[in-house]
Specification:
The protein is an alpha/beta fold and about 400 residues long. The chain has 10 helices and 13 strands.
């Protein structure tokens, strides 16, 4: 064959032609199969083969490690992959560039979920304006759930621990499988008809989308919306979302969290009461201590009439003694003064002069007239001479 006369393609050209045919035709496909040869790359991308009994196709998911995942990819897992068929030029092979992966069985349910969610949202079921506030201090709470299992026990334990005075009414229903949605609707109707609670907790533990599907049914959503009693949806784990969550007045991440939420104000009130009680007790203790101190001061100053009388008697005795001492002091002082004056008087007494040899001459006739000069005496005159030890009559010559 003459190479110069026959039209030929380069590998790149034929690959480009095939790409132009395949990729537009298969730009939005879902492919079901089993994962094999799963290979995560350091870049965060993952690669694996999707196979069934008759064929295999390569799959690449770019940025898988950074996505929020609800399940892990692994060999042997049956999955439904969405994406586009692309031609990988370096190997000349085609592959599925996947942007979405779901375990088999969830794809159809997920689509139904999204469809119902969009329809109910359009009808206003999820509007924030129609959601009611929960009672702050409920005294009776209805729980619509399975009567067996850990969920109801967790709720009861938390309620008893945080608000033991709140009455819990359990409305038993199926929470999985055939007939579960009808029982849930009936349970909500019973709560409203018989006023079994001031609010209701619709609860179930975690599970797959199939296990939780009864909470995604339209009849349950409409029963929640029609309830005259506020509804708290507590379905599955924190990452699980159901139509009931969107329709209810409040979504709790878990059943245990629902019990904690509805008892929150009771716990806060109990803590406030405890704090106020402690403050009141402290104030009373301080007031009593102040009054006790004041009473002690008053008691120390208060004297009984008997003690006061005895005190006055003792005081009179002390005054009498002081008076006696004062009188004695005054008498002694006056005696001493008298002695001093007597001494001075005695020193000035004429008798003292007479003792020194002097005498007093008086005229016997004229009595007390003292003769002070010799010229006053005449011959034969009778005189009286006073000496220190007596008197003598004499006659002048």
């Amino acid at each position: 064959m003459n190479g110069g006369s026959v039209k030929h393609w380069t590998v790149s050209e034929i690959t480009a032609q095939i790409r132009g045919v395949i990729e537009p035709a298969f730009s939005n496909v879902w492919i079901k199969g089993e994962i094999s040869n799963f290979r995560p790359a350091a870049s965060g991308h993952v690669y694996f083969s999707l196979k069934d009994a008759g064929a295999t196709i390569s799959v690449a998911i770019f940025g898988w490690s950074s996505r929020k995942k609800t399940f892990e990819l692994k060999d042997g897992l049956q999955v439904l992959c969405h994406g586009r068929i692309s031609l990988y030029s370096p190997r000349g092979s085609y592959q599925l560039a996947a942007d979405q992966v779901e375990p088999i069985g969830e794809g159809a349910l997920r689509a139904a979920f999204e469809a119902l969610k969009a329809r109910l949202s359009a009808e206003g079921f999820f509007d924030q304006s129609r959601k009611r506030n929960l009672p702050r201090f409920p005294l009776k709470v209805a729980v619509v759930t399975s009567p067996s299992g850990a969920v109801i026990q967790d709720i009861l334990n938390i309620m008893r621990r945080r608000a033991p005075h709140v009455r819990v009414v359990v409305v038993p229903v199926l929470v999985q499988g055939d007939g579960a949605a009808d029982q849930i609707v009936r349970g909500l109707e019973l709560v409203n008809k018989h006023l079994l609670g001031e609010m209701v907790i619709l609860a179930r533990g975690g599970g797959s989308i199939e296990d939780l599907w009864c909470f995604n049914e339209e009849k349950v959503a409409r029963a929640i919306a029609a309830s005259g009693v506020p509804v708290v949806s507590a379905i599955g784990h924190e990452t699980d979302f159901t139509i009931s969550d969107f329709t209810s007045d409040l979504r709790a991440p878990t059943p245990s969290a629902a019990a904690e939420i509805i008892t929150g104000h009771w716990v806060d009130a109990a803590m406030q009461m405890k704090e106020l009680g402690a403050r009141l007790q402290g104030a009373i203790i301080r007031d009593l201590a102040t009054r006790k101190t004041l009473l002690s001061h008053i008691a120390a100053r208060l004297i009984s009439p008997r003690d006061r009388l005895r005190e006055q008697m003792q005081k009179c005795d002390e005054l009498w003694l002081r008076l006696g001492r004062a009188l004695k002091t005054q008498i002694d002082r006056r005696n001493l003064m008298l002695e001093r004056l007597a001494g001075k008087l005695d020193a000035l007494s004429p008798l003292k002069v007479l003792e020194r040899g002097y005498s007093i001459v008086r005229d016997s006739v004229r009595g007390s007239e003292i003769i002070r000069s010799a010229a006053q005496i005449s011959s034969g005159q009778e005189l009286e001479i006073t000496f220190y030890d007596g008197k003598k009559g004499v006659r002048a010559i």
